[in-house]
Amino acid sequence: MKRREKWVTTVCPVARSTEVVGDKWTILILRELYMGATRFEEIQIQTEATPQMLATRLKSLEADGMVERHPYQKRPLRHEYRLTEKGKAFYPVIQTLRTWGETWCKSRGEEVAVRFTHRKCGHEVGLDYVCPVCGEYVERRDLDSVLSATFATEREKRREAFKAAKARVE
To answer: Where is the HTH hxlR-type domain (predicted)?
Structure first.
């Protein structure tokens, strides 16, 4: 069952797409899933979404067929989130946002946040969809990623801040 089917008032594919993925939090959740996060807490840490906001967006993504929940613990019941084929098919949009952001939303001298290497030939792909060395079109599953030191530090600081806040509450 699609959750917004009855609300569709246009045949415009852009408008329909933004009904599914048209907000910052949903895009950041998908980014984390593409980066390998599957558990609620890690997604929350890296997106900095409130638990309620994250739960709402994950339920919407599930209702729209972008993610599936899979139990990883029985007591208490906990789920991880995995991309469906539909969710995986959205990756080129994330790649395009990344390319645009690396090109237009950075300060001079800032390094690339994530470097991708083509697994098959071992060469860096840069911001393109085609390996500059072997000429193959590459998808996310064809690439290994390495975070820049700055981005890795930023992500680790979020984890540390989350743990500190959690410790204060307990």
So the answer is: 12-109
How much is the pTM? Answer: 0.89
Query: Is position 44 within any domain?
Result: yes
At residue 5, does pLDDT exceed 70?
A: no
Q: Report the b/e string of 66-80 with b at 16+ CB within 10 A.
A: bbeeeeeeeeeeebb
For the chain, the domain total comes to 1
Q: Is residue 143 in a domain?
A: no
- Which domain range does residue 32 map to? 1-90
Is residue 113 within 8 Å of 150, Cβ to Cβ? yes
CA 63 to chain centre: 17
Domain CATH code at residue 61: 1.10.10.10
Contacts of 131 (CB under 8 A, 6+ apart): 118, 120, 121, 123, 125, 138
SS3 159: helix
Query: Taken in order 12, 13, 16, 22, is the CA torsion positive or negative?
Result: negative
